[in-house]
């Protein structure tokens, strides 16, 4: 696979890079709020959260698909790359719950449900057991 030549940007890890990236991505907040998503930014990672009753799982997954579609469209318009390969979905529930989860599709690609995800060194698992 050939390296992609980037024609825009600032040095990664630099203070100006952090400030420019933060200012440049600020409009994402409006998109996330329009979709009623809670969110967390850390550097170039964005995490979306949605809490609700299991009976609303279809609405949650559809809302997630629409939100990510709009985020990707904004990123394309603003010369940022969304890494589909790093996209994960973690459904957190009680270990006693069984939830039939509809598939989530982003740009015609099915995103598998993850059993666990790492967030700033902490591993979260789907059953909230805090075991790794």
From TrEMBL:
Residues of the Reverse transcriptase domain: 1-124
Superkingdom of source: Eukaryota
Protein name according to UniProt: Reverse transcriptase-like protein
Tagged with keyword Nucleotidyltransferase: yes
Pfam families recorded: RVT_1
Upper taxonomic lineage: Eukaryota, Metazoa, Spiralia, Lophotrochozoa, Mollusca
Sorted UniProt keywords: Nucleotidyltransferase, RNA-directed DNA polymerase, Transferase
Entry-linked InterPro entries: RT_dom (IPR000477)
Single GO MF annotation: RNA-directed DNA polymerase activity
Residue ranges that the Swiss-Prot or TrEMBL entry lists as coiled coil: none
């Amino acid at each position: 696979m050939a390296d992609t030549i980037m024609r825009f940007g600032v040095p990664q890890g630099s203070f100006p890079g952090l400030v420019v990236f933060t200012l440049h991505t600020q409009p994402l907040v409006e998109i996330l709020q329009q979709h009623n998503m809670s969110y967390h930014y850390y550097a170039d990672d964005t995490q979306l959260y949605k809490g609700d009753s299991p009976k609303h799982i279809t609405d949650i997954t559809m809302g997630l698909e629409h939100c990510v579609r709009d985020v990707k469209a904004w990123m394309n318009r603003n010369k940022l790359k969304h890494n589909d390969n790093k996209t994960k979905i973690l459904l957190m529930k009680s270990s006693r719950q069984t939830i039939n989860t509809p598939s989530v599709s982003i740009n015609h690609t099915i995103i598998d449900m993850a059993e666990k995800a790492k967030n700033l060194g902490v591993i979260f698992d789907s059953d909230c057991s805090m075991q790794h």
